[in-house]
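Components:
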Amino acid sequence: MNKAKQTKLEKKGWKLGTADEFLNLSADELAYIELKLALSDKLKAKRVSKKLTQAELARIMKSSQSRVAKMEAGDPAVSIDLLIKSLLALGVSKKELGRSIS
Amino acid sequence: MNKAKQTKLEKKGWKLGTADEFLNLSADELAYIELKLALSDKLKAKRVSKKLTQAELARIMKSSQSRVAKMEAGDPAVSIDLLIKSLLALGVSKKELGRSIS
DNA sequence: ACATAATATGTCAGAAATGACATATTTTCA
DNA sequence: TGAAAATATGTCATTTCTGACATATTATGT
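Structure:
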């Protein structure tokens, strides 16, 4: 894990602590974060490809524009559950979901 | 969706309401539930294959035996986040995770 | 059958995620 | 440039999830 990657994650709001703590980030924890960010990216790509605004997507899934923004920003305080529900609401199949995780 | 499947889900604690409501379960909602159950099953299979007890897995991931039991039971009040964290703690790769979702 | 281990079920206080709202910032386009 | 649309950021009350615990039920081995 390089410094650039760390900086990018920290910018998104992930509290990675000191450099020492960061180096101690377990493979599991890292995989979890990467997985979330992969879903975030997928969500944004899918929404844009469908030409929907964040507000429109929010209405479809009975959420709010601000939460959609946070989802796409990879905000740590957004659950994988919500990301997955959003992707399903956009018509992404389980198969496609699985592919975007790997 | 047949009656047998409905019964099985309801037994796990999913509140699907009346038959009418059940028929109105959207494809998204169903996909979400199926996805969760797939992860539940994967978790149990993986734990058993590693010859760990629920209590041992709980210790590894700093949870509790009862929560592990609920995860494996497909309890609706367990997040996908926790299921995924558990699978990662058991050494499942993102790739394998993606495969088990699809 | 019996003890012991493993798993399941119910509950709850505290922690985390949620939708909603206000408002700031950025993008788009005439 | 400047107005309008879209997106981002911050906050908060309510809802949902969590680990922990007690206890019930079920499996395992002798």
